[in-house]
Design a protein that fits this description.
Blueprint: E1 10-13, E2 19-26, E3 29-35, H1 46-49, E4 65-72, H2 75-83, H3 91-99, H4 104-109, E5 113-121, H5 127-136, E6 144-147
Antiparallel strand pairs: 1-6, 2-3, 2-4, 4-5
C-alpha cells in the first residue's frame, strides 16, 4: 500500500474475542438484534441484547443503522463468577451462552459489554468515519490506533 500511496494510514484495532452481534436501528430505535450464529443464520435475541451494556435501545440521532460488534464478558466479571462457584469454561463461551438464555434478567446479571466495530448499512465510506459516527452515538468501540507504518505498531 505504501508503494501505491506513500501517505496512506492504517487503523489498527484490538481483536476482541466475544460473541458477534448485529444491531439494526430504524429511525434511531433498536428493532432487531441477531447473533452471528453459524455465519449464515443467527439467533434473534433482541430482548436479551437490550440487557447488554453498551447496547442502546435508542440512539442519539434518529437514523437508520445496521452495525456489527462483539459482546464480551469482561475478565473481572468472569473472574468474579468463577470465585463465586459458577461453572464457566471461558469468558467467550460464557458471553455467547448468556445471550441465548430465556430470561433477560439472567443476561443482565452476566454484566456483558457490547463494542461496535463496523457499520454494515447507514455508514460512511471509510472505517475511520464509521468509528467516529459510532462514538458520536455513544456506542463503545474497541481501542483503535492510527499509524502510517505497520512497523511502528
Amino acid at each position: 500500500m505504501k508503494a501505491i500511496n506513500p501517505n496512506c494510514e492504517f487503523d489498527i484495532e484490538h481483536k476482541m474475542d466475544g460473541c458477534g452481534l448485529d444491531l439494526t436501528y430504524r429511525n434511531g430505535t433498536l428493532i432487531q438484534s441477531v447473533t452471528r450464529g453459524n455465519g449464515i443464520k443467527g439467533d434473534l435475541i433482541t430482548e436479551n441484547a437490550k440487557q447488554v451494556g453498551g447496547v442502546a435501545e435508542k440512539l442519539r440521532k434518529k437514523i437508520d443503522l445496521h452495525l456489527r460488534g462483539e459482546v464480551i464478558m469482561p475478565r473481572k466479571v468472569f473472574d468474579k463468577f468463577i470465585k463465586q462457584g459458577e461453572q464457566m469454561k471461558n469468558a467467550r463461551n460464557s458471553a455467547s451462552g448468556a445471550l441465548k438464555r430465556h430470561d433477560p434478567k439472567e443476561v443482565k446479571r452476566m454484566k456483558l459489554q457490547f463494542y461496535g466495530y463496523t457499520i454494515v448499512e447507514g455508514g460512511n465510506k471509510t472505517q475511520d468515519k464509521d468509528i467516529k459516527l459510532l462514538k458520536s452515538l455513544k456506542i463503545q468501540t474497541p481501542y483503535i490506533t492510527t499509524t502510517n507504518s505497520i512497523k511502528s505498531s
